[in-house]
Amino acid sequence: MSARILVVDDILPNVKLLEAKLSQEYYDVLTAMNGPDALKKVEEESPDLVLLDVMMPGMDGFEVCTRIKQNPATAHVPVVMVTALTDSVDKVRGLESGADDFLSKPINDVALLARVRSLVRLKMSTDEWRVRENTATQLGVVDESANVMEQSAEKANILIIEDKDFELNKMKQTLMQDHDLVQGVSNGPEALSLIKSQDFELLIVSLNLASEDGLRLCSHLRSNERTRSIPLVMVAGQEDMQRVAHGLEIGAHDYILRPVDRNELLARVRTQIRRKRFQERLRSTYEISLSMALTDSLTGLYNRRYLEVHLEKLLEKNIESKKALAVLMMDIDFFKAVNDTHGHKAGDEVLQTFAQRMKDGLRSFDLVARLGGEEFVAILPDVTTERAYMIAERLRRAIEELPFKISGPAGAISVTTSIGATIITADQPNVSVYTSLERADKMLYDAKAGGRNCVIFEGKGKLDPEEFKGAERRVIE
Amino acid sequence: MSARILVVDDILPNVKLLEAKLSQEYYDVLTAMNGPDALKKVEEESPDLVLLDVMMPGMDGFEVCTRIKQNPATAHVPVVMVTALTDSVDKVRGLESGADDFLSKPINDVALLARVRSLVRLKMSTDEWRVRENTATQLGVVDESANVMEQSAEKANILIIEDKDFELNKMKQTLMQDHDLVQGVSNGPEALSLIKSQDFELLIVSLNLASEDGLRLCSHLRSNERTRSIPLVMVAGQEDMQRVAHGLEIGAHDYILRPVDRNELLARVRTQIRRKRFQERLRSTYEISLSMALTDSLTGLYNRRYLEVHLEKLLEKNIESKKALAVLMMDIDFFKAVNDTHGHKAGDEVLQTFAQRMKDGLRSFDLVARLGGEEFVAILPDVTTERAYMIAERLRRAIEELPFKISGPAGAISVTTSIGATIITADQPNVSVYTSLERADKMLYDAKAGGRNCVIFEGKGKLDPEEFKGAERRVIE
User: Fold this and answer.
1) pLDDT tens digits for A234-262?
2) What is the DSSP string of A59-119?
3) Burial profile B9-43: b = 16 or more Cβ within 10 angstroms, e = fewer
4) Which chain A residues are within 8 Å of B292, Cβ to Cβ?
5) Does the pLDDT at position B227 exceed 50?
6) Which end of chain A is more exposed for a tag (fewer CB within 10 A), N or C?
7) pLDDT tens, position by position, B302-316
8) Cis omega (within 30 of 0) for bond into A409
9) What is the number of structural domains in chain A?
């Protein structure tokens, strides 16, 4: 995949060397020769990757990386630090400033290009989600845009696949500093069986397993639907660089070379966990916006949009199943007076309590929605006439029986509801959503005109509360 | 990227050969030896790619491909047909049955692996969107899930970059059969300048340009943000296979070899256009769900959720800008009677017309929302007191002046509105969303109590319609 790469180094020949290598592979290359210029280019030109020299006069690479990662507008851009330093303390410092990888000079071309391809691929797959997250934030669907650096990098559930006990224990011990649950197994089949029953946030796979090819295990984990989205870190020997590069092509996210440095392991694992949680957060924004599209924000009930779509499906199903479906239209009596006397806040509280009592009084597969204002609808699929009467009466009584708590001096007030209802049987095949709601609505009008706080069913008339008092428990449960 | 690949061939050695090649590259390989078995595996095992032999006894490859592509559950799985046939008629037949590519036996490994990687990458990037589209469909946010084969493949805007006049004209003529606008240029700079001002749905790039490296142009087009998501088809000579493979790695979507067969060109272009439109459709589902989360479905106005988020921002801005902001709370007078007398359908029509007149009467940067029921809010940022009076009066009169058309025997009815309003000036710094709405709501209560069809501003009292009649035009426009 092509991409725009920013190369940052204060020494011109170094810049030229990297530029030539990347350009040869058909990347678009931008360059900067000092920290401030690099920061400016990252913000203005939105590169897909930054290759960043550590040792620069003035602002060094650590500082540049920290600033890129602290700026919400640029935190998502992957950074690979490049340095002559080989001390693991520097490496860890780089990773902790938010770098995605740390390569040593002289640069191994295979390692460089494999890394670049893998990071670019990751970035591309996240980019579209990120753009939409920003839209969602601007519109107020979510409070604040996710930032990869703000994600927690601790308390993850990690699985290590390593058959050398000493190495496994060392990694487990190390990771237990940050994480809750670190498990180890010695081969692929054991790993796959654990993965079936648990949700891992990171997999660490040895490329030096005695009984199987670790790279093939990585490949399998990356193509399996259950594990495809879990980050994967390879552990390999210094001599395995070609296989590591292949692993990155396959889709592994990172690697660490033996002997495993404890701090480097911790830092690399943190980076992966943060990124995984960032991606999850981006995806959940979509789910939130979907659910917002279908629910009423005040009561959490479904809205008219959802009701209409699903009532249509339920009506179809009703005919197929040869059963009956009840439509209950409900309205809070004298609701306007609640608002006028006790204020809108009290009014909102009444609506919320009303919604809660509806939910409590219905079966899990019934559908209850707020149409707007003080008007609600409940759909009861698969009911007998008798049972529909029961449920409607129970709902009416659930509102009347207990006062509604409200803020303000009154403390609590009495509320009642009127319910108009109709039953659609399978021998009425062409009843539309609109007709069924209208039929219930006419009954609601009669209930209002007939004194309120009552239930009227089409064809049956006003229910007598006395008639349903004793019978309810028996029939409903 | 690793992936699960289904190899379909009736001859065991062929299956084994492909399996070995792919397995060597660490793909997970599934196999099938006849059409029905292949269809079963595609549905049950969800492979990421199918390599499909054409010549099989019983159900042949064309039939298998057609069925995969006609089934909405499997249409998104890429199919590469593999055959000893070299007749371009067969090739085109394969592409027209929905195959994504057509490779000839003996298979060129470079071509095969480059193609597999490129198709797998495309599938992965679409998969997540597809899953969410399904969720959105189930919840009723969109009517029906998109299907790649159902997308129109015609009337696209296409740009060809080719410096050989004869070749360019041949491709243009051919593509004009299907498409509206096919333009040609002879070099990269011209292409880039056209792309700035037009939206193309497909780019065709010659890899044999005399004045520049076509592959570098492809790379640039793939890394440029404006062109990154436009499908790119390369045109190359038979001897350019290595460069074609490199182009696929860079992110080009397809290629066609010279001499260009007209039907093959048409078929490949159709496939790309369909896929592009499918992806756009998936993305637009997200936008739809976002906008649904923030708008009222009946009137198209913003909903309470949006109002609250944006009023908060507007209140902050109001303080910074040292200007004033007016909050108008509006309620349709005697709306309940409209529903009761003329039915809910008429009521809905009144709400829609009311919303439209509000929009017409406000400035483009004012915000109008439906709170629920017959209650609306308008926020007027950056107003003087006088202008706020004007606008409120104009809104009241816009409702009163003309009757509202409704379905049913009445035909049209008179409607009026009461408006309560408050002005938040910059010297009132700590006014919350809740307080500002409540202040306007109190005035609305007074307007209702004071006879309706009037405007009351906090601190000012009821406006005298006579006072604002002449002045309006002058001040507002």
Assistant:
1) 999 999 999 999 999 889 999 999 999 99
2) S-HHHHHHHHHHSTTTTTS-EEEEES---HHHHHHHHHTT-SEEEESSPPHHHHHHHHHHH
3) bbeeebbebbbebbeebbbbbbbbbbbeebbebbe
4) 292-294, 305
5) yes
6) C
7) 988 889 888 988 898
8) no
9) 3
**Quick one: closest CA in B to A306, which residue?**
B140
According to the model, what pLDDT value does residue B471 have? Answer: 54
Show residues of chain A in contact with B369, CB under 8 Å: none
| Test mutation, B130, B290, B311, chain A, max A CBs within 10 A | B290
Q: Is the pTM of this model over 0.90?
A: no
- pLDDT the model gives residue A469: 74
Query: Domain range for residue B175?
Result: 141-285
Q: Are residues A57 and A182 in the same domain?
A: no
Any chain A CB within 8 A of the CB of B284? no
Residues of A labelled catalytic: 374
Question: pLDDT grade, residue B284 (50/70/90)?
Answer: confident
A233 beta partners: A204, A254
The verdict on a CB contact (< 8 Å) between B292 and A297 is: no
d(CA B91, CA B53): 12
- For position B168, which CATH number holds? 3.40.50.2300
Total Cβ atoms within 10 A of residue A17: 16
Whether residue A293 is predicted with pLDDT greater than 50 in this model: the reply is: yes
- Average pLDDT estimate for A408-421: 94
Rounded to a whole number, what is the distance in Å from the CA of B87 to chain A's nearest CA? 32
Same domain, B56 and B157: no
Would you state the pLDDT for residue B477?
40
If asked whether residues B46 and B173 sit together in one domain, one would say: no
Q: Is A439 on the interface with B (CB under 8 A)?
A: no
Q: Looking at the predicted structure, is the pLDDT value of residue B476 above 70?
A: no
A-chain residues within 8 Å CB-CB of B289?
286, 289-290, 293
Of B26, B298, B310, the CB nearest to A140: B310
- Respond yes or no on whether ipTM tops 0.85: no
Catalytic sites of B, residue numbers: 374
Rounded to a whole number of angstroms, the distance from the CA of B305 to the nearest CA of chain A is 7
**Does one domain contain both B207 and B280?**
yes
| Residue A457 CB burial class (10 angstroms; 0-12, 13-18, ≥19) | buried
In a domain, B470, yes or no: yes
Query: Last residue of a domain, which of A269, A292, A315?
Result: A292
Are residue B155 and residue B35 in the same domain, yes or no? no
Give the one of A136, A305, A345 whose C-beta lies nearest to B297's C-beta: A305
N residues, chain A? 477
- Among B26, B224, B336, B354, pick the best mutation site for testing chain A contact (most A Cβ within 10 A): B26
Domain final residue pick, A253, A272, A292: A292
Q: Which residue of A has its CA nearest to B443?
A: A340
CA distance A267 to A96: 6
Does some domain include residue B334?
yes
Yes or no, beta carbons of B293 and A293 under 8 Å apart: yes
Locate the chain A residue with the closest alpha carbon to B122: A125
Sign of CA dihedral A315, A317, A323, A326: negative
Q: Residue A298 falls within a domain, yes or no?
A: no
Rounded-to-integer distance, Cα B49 and Cα B5, Å: 5
Q: Dihedral, CA atoms, B97, B102, B104, B109, nearest 10 degrees? A: -150
Residues 232-271 of B with CB under 8 A from A: 246, 249-251
Candidates A218, A289, A375; nearest CB to B293: A289
Whether residue A306 lies within 8 A of chain B, CB to CB, comes out as yes
Cα distance from B69 to chain A (closest Cα, Å)? 21
More confidently predicted of B17 and A372: B17
Average pLDDT, chain B: 90
Of residues A106, A52, A114, the one with CA closest to residue A77: A52
